[in-house]
Each structure stands twice: as structure tokens, then as C-alpha cells.
Amino acid sequence: MNSYLLLFLAIICEVIATSSLKLSNGFTHLFFSIITIIGYSASFYVLSLALKTIPVGIAYAIWSGIGIVLISLIAWIFMKQTLDLAALIGMGFIMFGVVIINLFSKVAAH
């Protein structure tokens, strides 16, 4: 499987786990607590597979950047948490950074 597809799968698992972590209410709701543990475990496992060919700094920049944006969108849409202009601008810069890494970094092309 393509390493970047594995990285994307790791991001999706992490986003599910982080969303469930909020819903677990401090690990007091069993269902969401179990989803959190499974999601983070799957995320780190799949991330470790992606790291066989993607440099760790590049993978982590992409993983964390896209994860931040997705978690923020999920929190905004489903958990009714608001995002102010500064948060939106900051996330825009994060995504811009991820795009720059992927388009112009010789290390990312490795």
C-alpha cells in the first residue's frame, strides 16, 4: 500500500480517536473510551508503517497539520465549538505549510 495512503488512514484513525476522547468525558463513557483506545492504537500502528518510507518530520507535519484542521472542523460542525477568525487564519497557515512541504520539499519527495 502507498505510504501516503497509510498516512491518510493514520490521520483518520487519530481524528476518530480524538473526537471520541472528547465524547468519553474523561473516560467515564465506556463506548467512547474503547473507541479512543482502539483509534489511537490503530493510528500509531498505521503511522509506523508509513514511516518505513516517509521521513518522520514530513509525516508528522502532515499528520498533525491535517489532524488539527479535521478535528477543528468536526468540533465546529458536530460539537458546536466555535472558531474565531484568528483560529481560522492559523489553520489556514497550517494547511499552507503542509501544501508547501508536499509541493516543494525534496525530503517529502523521498
Automatic annotation (TrEMBL):
Coiled coil region boundaries: none
GO biological process: glycine betaine transport; xenobiotic detoxification by transmembrane export across the plasma membrane
Compartments where located: Cell membrane
Keywords tagged on the record: Cell membrane, Membrane, Transmembrane, Transmembrane helix, Transport
GO CC annotations on file: plasma membrane
Record InterPro entries: EmrE-like, Small_drug/metabolite_transptr, Small_multidrug_res
Membrane topology summary: Multi-pass membrane protein
Single GO term (MF): antiporter activity
UniProt keyword Transmembrane helix present: yes
Entry protein name: QacE family quaternary ammonium compound efflux SMR transporter
Organism annotation: Gilliamella apicola
